[in-house]
Amino acid sequence: MIATNLKIKDGVLEFAGFSTPALARKYGTPLYLMDEQRIRDNCRMYQKAMTEFFGEKALTLYASKALCFKRMYEIVSDEGLGIDVVSSGEVHTAAKAGFPMEKAFFHGNNKTDEDIAFAMDRGVGYFVVDNVEELYAIEHIAERKGVTQKCLLRVTPGIDPHTYDAVATGKVDSKFGVPIETGQAEEFYNYAAALPHLEIVGLHCHVGSMVFDEDVYERTAQIMLEFMAKLHDKYGFVTQFLDLGGGYGVRYRESEGVVDIAYRISALADFMKELAAQLNIPFPAVLLEPGRSIVADAGLTMYTVGSVKRIKGYKNYVSVDGGMTDNPRYALYRSQYTVFAPERMEAPPTLHCDVVGRCCESDDIIQPDVWLPELRRGDLLAVCTTGAYNYAMASHYNRIPNAPIVMLSSKGASVAVKRETLDQMIKNDA
Ligand SMILES: *Cc1c(COP(=O)(O)O)cnc(C)c1O
């Protein structure tokens, strides 16, 4: 099995110790299931490795955008992580969940004036400033409110993480951050340092997502530490926080590798400590911002099969009662997924098909080229590793309501996000 929270019992797929068909019958489909213990274990793995290898000041921030609803923030808060947020919506959700906002870092390449003011009013601890215009916008709003806002500066190290273009963010020509290579990041620092209502406490970068290559974070850290040394030697600036972003890849299919994240963190820490000593700069509090690797393998989606279409001599289509509205990742990135027929895990896989959604879009595919047992209308399908960037990217295309999230734990199953109703979808129609 691709993850240790998946098991087969009497031919039935179990997830987090629960029978998946029983949950589908109880809560209906499409349905997101989340394994609470797995989320907590992933948080703990990061916390432990970060403090063990980088010291007590190190902090893991959960990247909210991967999966955002109130219960998530309660779990993350419980586990002692910080968060990164990118919109007033995420700030509001976290604040309503009682998250300690002084541990929130506000990201995004285009924070509106309303976002900035809203986040300051909610007591967001740190702003990660994306560009010079934004720097002045934050300064003006902080001045108006009579506060001093702690900020990190987002810079681009010019690293190609060898991932998909759509999720590569650290290259010089990225829409995020200010490039080091062109000298603009140094100017950015100088403008920032002169502003009276901002306290510049660190630097941030994020090179991309689904990173598997061994040396990506070392190459990134090298550029960042050298830039820190330059600011230190030229201007006496001490970088208190160095945030290296998120991005560790996860396994979506049996054939893919597993990143040993704790080991990677230990290797990165060794590399950085040695280089910081060589450069003769104080070692910063290191932050990482994982999203996907906290929640991806804690999620599983259940669907009901509708039509099974066999186009003679061509291909077979199995349509499910969800699709790109609950999981747009194949349409966006050609993402890989593992699909099971959860009621017949031991039946021979004789049906070669594309598993497709119900939306009016040919690319509304959950996964092409899948081998499954023979299927009929009313059978169930399970799609694994859907915890990250599924619910978070859900849409209302074709006016399909959002699916609910059921949280599974040793205390039982409980609804964390209710199924959206048809009336809720029209409530803002005037
Ligand atoms: C997307 C993103 C993350 C999280 O990336 P994952 O691949 O989900 O770990 C962290 N930081 C920033 C700035 C991001 O844009």
Question: What is the fold's blueprint, element by element?
Answer:
Layout: E1 6-9, E2 12-15, E3 18-19, H1 20-27, E4 31-35, H2 36-54, E5 59-63, H3 70-78, E6 82-85, H4 88-96, E7 104-106, H5 113-121, E8 126-129, H6 132-145, E9 149-156, E10 178-179, H7 184-193, E11 198-204, H8 216-235, E12 241-243, H9 261-279, E13 285-288, H10 292-295, E14 299-310, E15 316-320, H11 329-333, E16 339-340, E17 351-356, E18 365-372, E19 380-384, E20 405-409, E21 412-417, H12 422-426
Parallel strand pairs: 4-20, 5-6, 5-13, 6-7, 7-8, 8-9, 9-10, 9-11, 11-12, 12-13, 15-17
Antiparallel strand pairs: 1-2, 2-3, 4-14, 14-15, 14-19, 16-19, 17-18, 20-21
Helix pairs in contact: 2-9, 5-6, 8-9
The structure holds pyridoxal-5'-phosphate.
Pyridoxal-5'-phosphate (PLP) binds at residues 63, 65-66, 84, 107, 206, 209, 245-247, 289-293.
